[in-house]
Amino acid sequence: MKEIQNDALKQQLINNSGYRSHFSTDVLADTRLFHVVAGDFIVKEGSQPLHLFYLARGRAKLYATLPNGRVSLIDFFGAPCFIGEIELVDKHHEPRDVQAIEECWCLALSMKQFRPQLLNDTLFLRNLCISLSQKNYRNIVSLTQNQSFPLLNRLAAFILLTQHDDIYYEKHTQAAEYMGVTYRHLLYVIAQLTHDGILAKQKTGYVIRNRKALTALAMEMAPEHSFSGLLH
Predict the structure, then answer these.
(1) pTM beyond cutoff 0.85
(2) What is the DSSP letter of 119?
(3) Which residue range or ranges hold the Cyclic nucleotide-binding domain (predicted)?
(4) φ, ψ of residue 75 in degrees (nearest 5)
(5) Residue 95 CB: number of other CB atoms within 10 A?
(6) How far apart are CA 204 and CA 39, in angstroms?
(7) Distance (Å, rounded) from C-alpha 88 to C-alpha 86?
(8) What is the C-alpha separation between 86 and 226, in angstroms, rounded?
(9) Going by DSSP bridges, is the β-strand pair 41-43/97-100 parallel, antiparallel, or unpaired?
(10) What is the pLDDT of residues 57-106, one digit of tens each?
(11) What's the confidence (pLDDT) of residue 86?
């Protein structure tokens, strides 16, 4: 992650992401801009973030290391949204890994400098409550879908959410755990998608050969989701 000095780009991201509307006071002069390449970390597990991040462009994923040493995939973030808001509210919260799926651009405010101000900003806190409730609702919907739809549809959605430049390369063990299925069942469905020409195996993972068909499978499960926005 690298800080970028580009006022024009920063202003463009502020204008296009709704960033200003989250605060009752003007924080623009102290807002910093960070660029995160795909695969890099926005927040590292065990290290308190120095900034409250606002993901203005890009997608990221949240991981946690379990007591037994296993790394578990928890959630996905898509712009625009805050990252590090739990650590802002609770300084004792244990941070988890937040990793960029694709190139990300983040607007940021210093935790140390702005924590007192933000925790007394009723507009910011209201927006934060709405954001957290939406994340919680999304997790509930995801759990319901895991119980109600075939793995074929759920895997199609998962691939679209995690792919980068048409390449899917998530670890099978983590993907199977996230979707609540066996490793063998996951491999069976991936083989089915490969046989149907939707995916193609390569050294770094799987190439999406037919985005239209993959999106159609995902839309059967979540017709209101903007998977179409992932089409290029």
Answers:
(1) no
(2) T
(3) 26-135
(4) -160, 170
(5) 16
(6) 14
(7) 5
(8) 26
(9) antiparallel
(10) 999 999 888 788 787 888 888 889 999 999 999 988 889 999 999 999 99
(11) 92
